[in-house]
Specification:
Layout: H1 6-10, H2 21-44, H3 48-69, H4 75-99, H5 104-126, H6 137-164, H7 169-190, H8 194-217, H9 228-250
Helix pairs in contact: 2-3, 2-4, 2-8, 2-9, 3-4, 4-6, 5-6, 6-7, 6-8, 7-8
């Protein structure tokens, strides 16, 4: 029998998935669902921003609690938490802008500062921002705080381009898509730092997904394709469920520490 130090026993297996094409596909669709589901709950179901925020906040706390208690990455648990963070992050921005009257410019700047602050605290504490080493409780808390700020920032930045600057959903989606492509080329061709490239792309996939969601769901008179929030949310949720199910079934069983 092998023995392990107390420090190793207190650590967790890495709690986040490997960064593959499936990771990015689900991430983009989760951001789209965050945009359309928030609109569906607050507008179509008449819950309002406040009511929707309370409901999603409670669900997020429950999902995050389950994720934090787990000792290893489980696809369905992790991605449920991501989807709920996406919806809640959208609602945080919408509440600031629509309810409190904070401008999109101010909201974008505020969440940029908040995200930079969370990264600074994370690095000062752990000396790394790598998602490949999320195996302690403290690192996981830093990780989820950063994820929440990326979603809130992405919502604000996406709305700022599409609505504040009146570029429209299609041009906004193309703009953010081009920036993501540029980061990808910089990483593979010019050896951009992997951690920096990951977080830049992670932030940009939020407004990219949100712009795509609005483009698909909004009425044609408002620059969308008129699929509606119900149809768009259902389509992307079904795809997420299918991919997560496949990842769950194909995931190798972790070896137990002896």
């Amino acid at each position: 029998m092998h023995t392990h130090s107390p420090d190793l026993k207190r650590t967790l297996l890495n709690k986040v998935p490997e960064v593959t094409i499936f990771f990015w596909l689900i991430k983009v669709m989760a951001t789209t669902v965050g945009e359309t589901a928030a609109d569906f709950l607050s507008v179509d179901l008449h819950l309002g921003l406040t009511g929707t925020s309370w409901v999603m906040g409670v669900l997020l706390l429950a999902a995050l609690g389950a994720q934090l208690r787990a000792r290893q990455y489980v696809p369905w648990r992790y991605w449920i938490t991501v989807v709920l963070v996406s919806i809640f992050g959208t609602l945080v921005t919408d509440n600031l802008v629509d309810t409190l009257g904070v401008s999109l410019e101010a909201t974008t700047v505020a969440f940029t500062i908040a995200l930079a602050g969370s990264f600074a605290l994370w690095y000062a504490s752990e000396r790394t921002l790598s998602i490949h080493t999320i195996f302690t409780r403290r690192r996981e808390l830093f990780y989820w705080a950063a994820i929440l700020f990326t979603f809130a920032l992405g919502t604000a930045a996406g709305d700022l381009l599409a609505e504040g600057l009146d570029l429209g959903y299609g041009i906004s989606a193309a703009t953010f898509g081009a920036l993501i492509l540029a980061i990808t080329v910089a990483f593979y061709r010019f050896r951009l730092n992997g951690i920096l490239a990951f977080w830049m792309a992670y932030v940009l996939t939020r407004p990219f997904g949100a712009s795509c969601g609005d483009l698909l769901s909004q009425p044609t008179g408002q620059g969308g394709l008129g699929l509606g929030t119900v149809g768009t949310s259902a389509l992307f949720l079904a795809t997420i469920v299918g991919l997560v199910l496949w990842l769950t079934l194909s995931q190798p069983r972790p070896r137990q520490l002896a």
